[in-house]
Amino acid sequence: MHIFLTGEIQVGKSTLIRRALARTPGLKLAGFRTVTVADVPGAVGSVYIVSPEGAEYSGRARIKIRWGEGRGAEDFPEAFEGRGLELLADAESGDLILMDEIGKTEAAAPRFCARVRELIDGDVPVLGVVRLEGVTPLQEYIRSSPNVRLMTVTEENRNALVPVLARAIAEAAGVK
């Protein structure tokens, strides 16, 4: 069984994942997470796709620049087709595959989307975030998959979900 969190922007989904994973030490994580870094003058920040334990803030890992103040964003879906696919290449070798997060930009990265669907259909447990807003084919695939347990995170339930998610992770990954 795979677990995906959803909820409003900035409600604490990624923080919840970090806190739950801290309660299940020793897992070999594969996959990716996304990180925002304030590294472009005049922008809110760049969003990078990085490994679960590390960070690579280079152009090949940049998936988006958020300009802010109503100026929108600039997407770089080729980063999913390059660095994103590298991060998922041997994901089945992990105890748990992290996918934090799946949003709208991936829709323009067909090979990356195909790989994510392959992993969702696979046996290695996936822990991820699927953005609440957006209706891309990949988001809908995740939301409707019988292999996915979707958990909605709110300000009211996020702290109570930490032990629930930690138990679910441990159970899915076969940790005692």
Secondary structure class reads alpha/beta
- Please give the largest β-sheet: 8 strands, mixed
CATH topology category name: Rossmann fold
Shape: globular
Q: How many structural domains are formed by the residues?
A: 1
Features:
single chain, alpha/beta, 27% strand, Rossmann fold, 176 residues
Walk me through the structure:
The chain has about 180 residues and is α/β, with parallel strands linked by helices. The protein has one domain: Rossmann fold, CATH 3.40.50.300. It has 5 helices and 8 strands; from the N terminus they run βαββββαβαβαβα. The protein has helices at about 15-20, 80-90, 110-120, 135-145, 160-175; strands at about 1-5, 30-35, 45-50, 60-65, 75, 95-100, 125-130, 150-155. It has an 8-stranded mixed β-sheet, sandwiched between helices. Strand 2 and strand 3 form a beta hairpin. The longest helix is centred in the last third of the chain and has 13 residues, at about 160-175. The radius of gyration is 15 Å and the shape is globular. It starts with a strand and ends with a helix. The mean pLDDT is about 95.
